[in-house]
Amino acid sequence: MKNLSLKLTCLLLALSTSWISSTAEARQFSVPQAVQLYTDDELVSLIRENRHLQRVRDVDNCQLYQDIRAQAEVERRPAYQFLYGDMLAYGVCYDRDVELGVRYMQLAAEQGLPEALEQLGRYYHVGQLVQPDMERAILHLREAASLGNLPAQKRFAQILLSGYGSALDMEAAYHYLHNAITGDEQEHRQIQRILMALSDKLPTRIVERAKLPLDS
Questions:
Q1: Which runs of consecutive H residues, i.e. helices, occur in 32-166?
Q2: Cα–Cα distance between 119 and 123 in angstroms, integer?
Q3: What is the pLDDT of residues 78-100, one digit of tens each?
Q4: Cβ atoms within 10 A of the Cβ of 46, count?
């Protein structure tokens, strides 16, 4: 009887030790939790802060690359089209394909995503990924500026001040920047300087008209 009791005790100890060991291994080699898709607002916020590529590569370890492609190709969500395009253009989580990447940026811009319009306008301005083209730069930046994109509003105005565009473009640039809102003191002063430079090139009556509220 004592032998039987001893054997049972040894068996229970062995099972307990095995369970503890298995639990420790499970904790050590646990599978990472699935990463959730971003909301459109979250993704746009990441894009505005230029953290979208870092997020998908360094934080989420490229786990969402198939979902991102599906959202861009099938669902045609503009923020995801922009993200997919940027990932392709710079070889993030995919083999690099600049041509297809720029195409998806254009698709996002065609759907009116201000961040896509601004980036394409900037690329055409400086000749990044594409050849410099001031007409296309102005076209994209003016549209982004009209949608309230402040970086586009500033670049649009600066291009006009360098001698490109038309008088109507210059009035529009003044109108957008005069109605711009920012809590950044340095940016506020920069906008004031641009507005002063624009006003020097516009008749007084045009400046007064350009100061009207948006959509007035």
A1: 40-48, 52-54, 65-73, 78-89, 98-110, 114-126, 134-146, 150-161
A2: 6
A3: 999 999 999 999 999 999 999 99
A4: 18
What's the rounded Cα separation, in Å, for the pair 112 and 118? 10
pLDDT of 116: 99
For helices 150-161 and 167-178, what crossing angle results, to 10°?
140
Place of tokens 């959730």: 36
Helical H runs in 62-113?
A: 65-73, 78-89, 98-110
Contact 104, 84 (CB under 8 A): yes
pLDDT higher at 111 or 26: 111
Handedness of CA 109, 113, 114, 120 (dihedral sign): negative
Instruction: Count the neighbouring beta carbons within 10 Å of the beta carbon of residue 174.
Output: 24
How far is Cα 31 from Cα 197, in angstroms, rounded to an integer? Answer: 58
Residue 111: Cβ within 10 Å count = 15
**Contacting residues for 103 by C-beta, under 8 A, at least 6 apart:** 85
Ramachandran region of residue 212, left (φ > 0), alpha (ψ -120 to 50) or beta? beta
Single out the residue of 114, 173, 106, 172 nearest to residue 144, CA to CA: 114
Give the gyration radius of the chain's Cα atoms.
28
